[in-house]
Design goal:
By secondary structure, the chain is an all-alpha fold. The protein has one domain. It contains one helix and no strands.
Amino acid sequence: MSGVNDIRSTFLDYFRKEGHEIVASSPLVPR
């Protein structure tokens, strides 16, 4: 199982490639 940071990095890299804006304050994983 990948670490949360690995998943988050992959997720953000994907969105950057798609041209989406990255909102740093937005939580990736719901609490």
